[in-house]
């Protein structure tokens, strides 16, 4: 009796199982009567920077891409609602921005596309660009279209200290129309110069690109904009002054071009010497005012002045010292010429022309922001951050 009842219950259980199976198979859906889920579109739109990105770099162009489909409309707008300029590639699979992003801004994506399966797909959302702790300005010299002498360095200056010199220097590039060996050297935490190993070849064309926008140059400091310049090296002209000779010689392409009697800094006082070293013409001033209260003169006007250092030395006219020009060194460090000679030299000179001084007791101090040629090549290269 006990065994029969057990067998009967087992039979009921099996029967119930059959009944359930038969019921689930009636509608053929395999999901308890629920309709099948719709297939997702094959196409996928992605963007760089990604949606919801924070501290996105501003130097890289925004890109919107679609996989397994085509883009039908792409809009990237800035916080003012203005569209960022950009264009699609011919295949309509990639949209690339053609303008730079701004620092510390939120941009909005609205992109649509169609998959290879004909289904629509879209991308929406926002991203935020990096917010600098400080934005500073950079400049480059020489400026566009300048023609300069064979000793002219390229100089990039920043209006605040650069703490990551490697990052800043890595963004700098010098291209030349002739093969020129050169290197960058940091003269201070606000200035980096590029000079050739030897004087520039005459008539070299130079392009400098400083892609500094978007570069963190240390402690969250960024540069306001890229800076570039294109300039030309002129003819080869070098001035040579051996101070005891009282003669200033001018050479063109290695041959003597002109010779002018001169009076240089006082030989007996190293503080008044015209110091030894290779300098360059830094400025050309038709008239200049000279002051040195220590030595008893102020507001002295001289003509045809070419500054050759920030230490105070010039090549200039000094008719008041005519009796000593070509005979004695009596100046306070400048190279004095007769007025007619000073005018001839002034007219012949280019900014960046080398001026080589020898024969003095004193050396030019390396404190000027234009002291590139006072260093030998190995010392100069050691000032590079890379």
From TrEMBL:
Residue numbers annotated as active site: 316, 334
PANTHER family for this protein: L,D-TRANSPEPTIDASE, L,D-TRANSPEPTIDASE YCIB-RELATED
InterPro entries referenced in this protein's UniProt entry, alphabetically: Big_10 (IPR041280), LD-transpeptidase (IPR050979), LD_TPept_cat_dom (IPR005490), TAT_signal (IPR006311), Transpep_catalytic_dom (IPR038063)
Pathway this chain belongs to: Cell wall biogenesis; peptidoglycan biosynthesis
Keywords: Acyltransferase, Cell shape, Cell wall biogenesis/degradation, Peptidoglycan synthesis, Signal, Transferase
GO BP annotation list: cell wall organization; peptidoglycan-protein cross-linking; regulation of cell shape
Endpoints of the signal sequence: 1-21
Protein name: L,D-transpeptidase
Molecular-function annotations in GO: acyltransferase activity; peptidoglycan L,D-transpeptidase activity
UniProt GO cellular component terms: extracellular region
Start and end residues of each L,D-TPase catalytic domain: 237-358
Domain of life: Bacteria
The species this protein was found in: Amycolatopsis suaedae
């Amino acid at each position: 009796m006990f065994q029969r009842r057990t067998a009967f219950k087992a039979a009921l259980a099996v029967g119930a199982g059959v009944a359930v199976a038969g019921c689930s198979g009636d509608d053929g859906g395999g999901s308890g009567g629920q309709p099948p889920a719709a297939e997702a579109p094959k196409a996928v739109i992605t963007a760089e920077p990604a949606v919801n990105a924070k501290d996105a770099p501003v130097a890289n162009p925004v890109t919107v891409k679609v996989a397994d489909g085509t883009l039908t409309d792409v809009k990237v707008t800035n916080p003012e609602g203005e569209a960022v300029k950009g264009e699609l590639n011919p295949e309509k699979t990639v949209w690339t921005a053609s303008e730079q992003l701004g620092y510390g801004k939120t941009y909005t994506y609205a992109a649509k596309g169609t998959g290879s399966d004909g289904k629509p797909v879209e991308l929406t959302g926002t991203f935020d660009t990096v917010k600098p702790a400080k934005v500073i300005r950079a400049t480059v010299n020489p400026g566009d279209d300048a023609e300069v002498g064979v000793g002219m360095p390229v100089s990039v200056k920043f209006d605040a200290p650069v703490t990551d010199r490697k990052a800043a220097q890595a963004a700098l590039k010098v291209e030349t129309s002739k093969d020129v060996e050169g290197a960058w050297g940091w003269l201070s935490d606000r200035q980096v110069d590029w000079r050739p190993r030897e004087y520039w070849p005459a008539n070299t064309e130079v392009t400098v690109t400083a892609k500094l926008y978007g570069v963190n140059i240390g402690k969250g400091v960024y540069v306001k904009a890229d800076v570039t310049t294109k300039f030309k090296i002129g003819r080869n002209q070098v001035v040579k002054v051996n101070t005891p000779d009282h003669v200033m010689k001018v050479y063109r392409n290695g041959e003597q071009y002109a010779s002018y009697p001169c009076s240089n800094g006082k030989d007996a006082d190293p503080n008044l010497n015209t110091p030894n070293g290779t300098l360059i013409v830094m400025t050309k001033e038709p008239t200049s005012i000279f002051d040195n209260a220590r030595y008893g003169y102020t507001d002295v006007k001289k003509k045809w002045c070419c500054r050759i250092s920030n230490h105070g030395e010039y090549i200039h006219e000094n008719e008041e010292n005519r009796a000593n020009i070509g005979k004695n060194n009596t100046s306070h460090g400048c190279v004095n010429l007769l007025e007619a000679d000073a005018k001839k030299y002034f007219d012949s000179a280019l900014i960046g022309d080398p001026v080589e001084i020898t024969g003095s007791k004193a050396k030019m101090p390396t404190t000027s922001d234009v002291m590139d040629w006072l260093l030998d090549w190995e010392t100069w290269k050691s000032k590079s951050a890379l």
